[in-house]
Protein 1
Amino acid sequence: MSDLEKVFKVIDGYRDEIIQFQADLTSRVALGPENEGTGEHDKAVYLMKRLEELKPDFLKEIKAPDERAREGYRPNLVAKWEAGNTGSTVWVLSHMDVVPPGDLSLWDSDPYQIKVDDDKIIGRGVEDNQHGIISSYLALKAIKGTEIALGRAVGLVIVADEETGSKYGLDYLLKRHRDFFKHDDLIIVPDGGNDQGTMIEVAEKSMLWLKFTVTGQQCHASTPEKGKNSLYGAAKLILELGKLKDEFGLTDELYSPPSSTFEPTKMEANIPNINTIPGRDVFHIDCRILPDYHVDDILAAAEQIAARVAKELDLSILVEPVYRQEAATPTPASSPVVEVLARAIKAVKGLEAKPMGIGGGTVAAFFRQAGLPAAVWMTMPNTPHQPNEYCLIQNIISDAKVLACLYLDQYGMDHTGEDK
Ligand SMILES: [Zn+2]
């Protein structure tokens, strides 16, 4: 039996271990203060213990001070296992924090107690991003258990605050410990992908979130002539903003979807009763913009549209950017991380993976901005942030095998199981 086959056999036996790991992580709720939580402390304590079990050569908890969190900081864990050579390190970065479950009536089970249904594990965080934590960890555990030497050094980074901006997570880590990472290291972020595991994300669009406040004049619904209905303004403006799609209509087939997107999303409540004409409406749009365009140009165009609608309906409209991030330089499609990932995916799944761009934004942007080529990859049905979020056990197993190929630097078996 080859080294890879031995390791794959161990990974194939991890079903119960995956279920237990998911149960342990899901019940340690890690919500950031912006999401009315106290941070990632419980999950970090648990994960430190799990990392220690694999006897890393280096293990450090990097504490990003945050008064709002329990213990006054947000935990970021970095563990490293050296190989017998001085070549590049393969880093896998996952995040501990989760998003709130949202409307509980849409869940069929308790979001924080996993439910297992055949190959499915259901619970908040199981996919985003515990899948990544578990597959990267178990790949290493399987290798350690078989006592086969690592082919390259392996680093696991498990960060806080990914869901609410990364200021206390990867951004903090890179500002203080950029030296952990070398330019030729292989950096993988298992926090996005497709259901085949064939998408290697190398580029992201720029992001712009805009808030529109439409102000008119509130009055009784039976006498509309005495007021100015702000909801007409909001409705008209939402439709007019759809024209941004034509004005910024370039497409690039590297990205999925290939064009920029401008979607109305959050609408704030206006009045609680039906018989009042609203005098104030607030809504937001979420823009994902191809790097061909400047974020400032989109903002200016949106302001122009708003000014026109305001004039037409005699309302006032305020446009405010609430979040913006210019796209980072893409990871080259020819970079080593893309190449070895594609080889490993071919070896494990027998499928051709290809580099692609997405709407963004993942934490990989922080690596790219720091000049470190990173690839986002995992095998996932697309359920993050949804009610009844789930992951598939078989995906965690196959992703652990792909990562094991990278840890061992061996790709010598195709999906038929034959040695090559
Ligand atoms: Zn995530």
Protein 2
Amino acid sequence: MEKEIDINKVVRQHLEMEQFFTGFALKGKDIKSEQQKPEDNMTNAEKAAELEKIADEVNQCRKCSLGSLRTNAVPGEGDSNARIMFVGEGPGADEDAQGRPFVGRAGQLLDKIITAMGLKRSEVFIGNVIKCRPPENRDPRADEIISCLPYLQRQIEIINPEIIVALGAPAAKTLLNTNKSIGQLRGLFHEYYAGLGRPPIKLMPTYHTAYLLRNYSQENRKRVWEDMKKVLAELGLPVPEHGRK
Ligand code: SF4
């Protein structure tokens, strides 16, 4: 627990410093502008090409030690114009082996949740804060998160989703620049700020599907489904009467 708090503190300090010097803000309600951002004028093909460029950079990246330990980097995948982005912490063994996000058991559960929402996996974007698997699935270190986060920030800027679903505490804490627990954060919309002149993006934290598999109680399943129903309602999409049981 002590280690987790320290990591979060170091990442938070880095993000606050970045915000101070560059105007890039992950949190705060004081930055408002009607200014249109460049990505609003990009075609889907241009967005897809930009995402491909980021994926190429990730696949070559050796900015932190995880780069030399991975089998494959996992840049993320999905619709370049997705209305929803799902963001987890980092790749596991299956993802490392295939170079694709959320393809193991936790990924299969995420697929079921997406289907229950009336969506297809190809209609959303799925990615992670960290693009390479930490050995033995250990928690990513603060320096690794700081090195890797700009890739995700750029992906969010390009896709410009209406809603980000942060899967699990590490993703939610990093994107919201907070040290609150997932229990305090989930179930409510928060705001992710992508920078000066950009309107905030709604962010819904919920449990990671790997956590859900480890704690597969009806209560936890219901909590995640309630969170996803709020996402659908916010997007004006039909909310299925019955979800994951
Ligand atoms: S984890 Fe991120 S920063 Fe580190 S080597 Fe992989 S892509 Fe680069």
Protein 3
Amino acid sequence: MSSQSSVPWYDDFVGVAYRYYDLRMNVVPLFTDRKEAASLWHDTIHPWVDPSIKIRFLELDDNYWFIMGSDTQKPDTNLSFFKELPKSENYERFKKGHGGEAYLRLGVYAKKSLGDVKKDAVCDCSHEAQDHDEGDGDICLFNSCDCKKFSSFQVNLLKKKKILTDIKFLEEKDMKNDPLVWNCLNANKFSKSE
Ligand SMILES: [Zn+2]
Ligand SMILES: [Zn+2]
């Protein structure tokens, strides 16, 4: 057994954003609580040895598994991360555009309501804030749209970053060949499916 198989798995985050920032793609695990993100960075990610950080994307139908782990200088507080997520446009853009390197940073995800945003802010329904009725429970004014309440989100990136160079996209047939991915699925998928 490799030492990596004893690292606990962590999935208590809300998703992953992919953003251009500082001329490089950024992979941004998202948290709702800034303090939680900051302490995870301090305890777990900061002690990671950059060149050993592995980031894997296992594609299964319309979803993908985000899987991330690393060797560390502080084994007592090490964690490996995973999350099953739907493929998105930003994910596909990252897959095509990363060029073998990316920054890892954490992000804090904040929901915004109609009162918090400018008129041209875009709602989850794809229509702008000014197309939502401020008087009557923020419903979207487009006839074809069934959005009942304006909602959008903002991502604030924490400043600290790590450089990712070991990035792989895998399909189901490859999963047994990658120890980190195989450990993750055994611990978090196969053992829980019954
Ligand atoms: Zn809307
Ligand atoms: Zn709408």
